[in-house]
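Technical note accompanying the year-one report. For the benefit of new consortium partners, we illustrate the data format agreed upon in the data management plan: each record pairs a sequence with a structure-token string. No post-processing was applied to the example shown here.
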Amino acid sequence: MSRALLLAISISLLSVAGCKKAPPEPPATEQAAPAPAASTSALSAEETAAIAAAIDSTDRLAGDKDEDAWRRPSEVLTFLEVKPGMKVIDYFSAGGYYTELLSRVVGSNGQVVAYNNAEYLKFSGEKPNQRYGNGRLANVAQLTTPPEEAPFEANSLDAALFVMSYHDLHWQAKDGSWPKTDPAQALAKLVPALKPGAVVVVMDHAAVAGADPAVSVDALHRIDPAVIKRDFEAAGLTFESESKAFANAEDDHSKPVFDPAIRHKTDQVLYRFRKKP
């Protein structure tokens, strides 16, 4: 699918109505406690420098740098092994904090798909317009459509990033504020769009082992890491690595992720999967 067609799809769908309750985490300025760095990646010095330059850019959207302390983007982007020239999807990108960083890393020869469904887009308010308006990030194509209908082009993506968003595909909101989504169908749309050897990184709030997603997601916005592994391996990807950069042994997994006592300090899993070459 051409970039022009992706942009056309985005423009035609941006007006779709959203939900009553926001699924993703809203921005905040709270800082997380320090944690160990992510595991070593295969990036070259030049590729690592591209990530550092993106984070250090003085042209980033106002307020983004305030979130760096708890988001620690260097660890996430390094673990993703994102490089200049890649085509990457930020899955459920919401306001686009990571979309912008990815845009700056991949550069003018790369592209980023800022993918949302209508609910995520509505939650994001004016942030997407502020971030992408007037051609501010020319290599970003917005795409807004239900996960099960996403028209991803086959073998077009070098990498995919899920940040605190995969659990929402399992969400069964009791108040009807989130549409019924099918994780298997969503991944069935995504995986064929990945090139052979492409990387998928999933970062999410950990639930207690064995927790039913139908309960833990609605009540706590957490997911059992074993469910993530199960889903992505069932979709045909190979589990490659885990980073403990965002692990927190003091989190007992009992509190909702928005609880002030644990917000931005939850025990978080960071997994890397790869499509077979």
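Partners are asked to follow this layout when depositing records. The chain has a mean pLDDT of 89.
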